[in-house]
């Protein structure tokens, strides 16, 4: 019997016993559906995180923030520490060769006035590196430059929402915006930034569109009078992603030394954050994948038992075929083909059901799901492997059947 004849015979057997086939495939369908749905949800979550990070600096970005003392009793050394300062940012830029850009930032609430508009807003002091660190570039005009920083220039750059709020339909470029009582000339309006974690959610990057940016030195000299030049945080961009770990440790060591052994700061490495999130999600992924594999195991056992029962019904048929010259390999191949057809059908149905599961979970939890060709192949491959493993014993048993005993079987 050729392979084509074995397939035709297997399909005929499936059609003749549709209910039995349904029972055989049920476990495989549910197992493949679980595998595909879980892989789709996990992969979508990681892709979403990567897409968000890419919008605000990518995985090479390290964030250094102030950390207030957590101890109940604060030491004199901790009280004497100034926290993050402009000098810290300059030291990072100067002493750590793995660092490509350093963007220190500080903010202060000020009354913003233009025409009839008057409202308190947070004005952010930044450096020219800000646009590269955040991938935030001007739509019109220009961004802050080194000359602005050196001269503490009275220039400002506005996010798209801030420009619309302050000026309405008026062109803000070249106009004067009063921050506190000081007039600043608007030299640029930034491109609008948008990122939505799911349909119907708020723009996660709207805070950038609402920014009012001035040279960091102008913030100190014209508003705060801060001689220590304190910072809210420091953005650090590493030259290559593989250097993230080394750069993080170098920043920690440098600041620890500069702050007199006081760790009044925290360093957040995005690559480490993503790794920790993957590790935390691995437990849930393993749980659901185990459930899917158990379903496949149960489905495989059901397939094997039903095939053995079917074999008992067809003993005389097998004996007659062997008596007429069929080889043991022909009988084994026919049984395996039948098992693979059943599990293949189950895998295809499970793939469709898995896509449905993923869409249902997406709608219920408002979470994205992505089904890739690899996931589809993994689901179908798991079902075929199940058929191959659990169809092997019935196939071997049928192949070893003696023709004389089979023809005597009642």
Polypeptide structure, described:
- The protein is an alpha+beta fold and 410 residues long.
- It is built from 15 helices and ten strands.
- It has a six-stranded mixed beta barrel.
- Strand 6 and strand 7 form a beta hairpin.
- The two termini are 26 Å apart.
Quick recap:
This protein is 58% helix and 17% strand. It is of the alpha+beta class.
Largest sheet: 6 strands, mixed, barrel
Overall structural class, as computed from helix and strand content, comes to alpha+beta
Oligomer: single chain
Characterize the overall form.
elongated
**N-to-C series of helices and strands:** HHEHHEEHEHEHEEHEHEHEHHHHH
Number of alpha- plus pi-helical segments: 15
Question: Order of strands across the widest beta sheet?
Answer: 2-3-8-5-7-6
Average of per-residue pLDDT values: 79
Distance between the termini: 26 Å
Find the count of extended strands (DSSP E, 2+ residues): 10
Beta-strand fraction estimate: 15-25%
Radius of gyration: 34 Å
Weakly predicted, low-confidence segments: none
Portion of residues within helices: 55-70%
Characteristic key phrases:
single chain; 410 residues; alpha+beta; 6-stranded mixed barrel; 10 strands
List the helices and strands and how they pair.
Elements: H1 3-16, H2 18-55, E1 61-66, H3 76-80, H4 86-95, E2 99-114, E3 117-126, H5 130-134, E4 138-141, H6 146-151, E5 155-158, H7 160-167, E6 176-179, E7 182-190, H8 206-209, E8 212-215, H9 216-224, E9 233-238, H10 244-258, E10 265-269, H11 270-313, H12 315-323, H13 328-365, H14 373-399, H15 403-408
Parallel strand pairs: 3-8, 5-7
Antiparallel strand pairs: 1-9, 1-10, 2-3, 2-6, 2-9, 4-7, 5-8, 6-7
Helix pairs in contact: 1-13, 2-11, 2-13, 2-14, 4-10, 11-14, 13-14
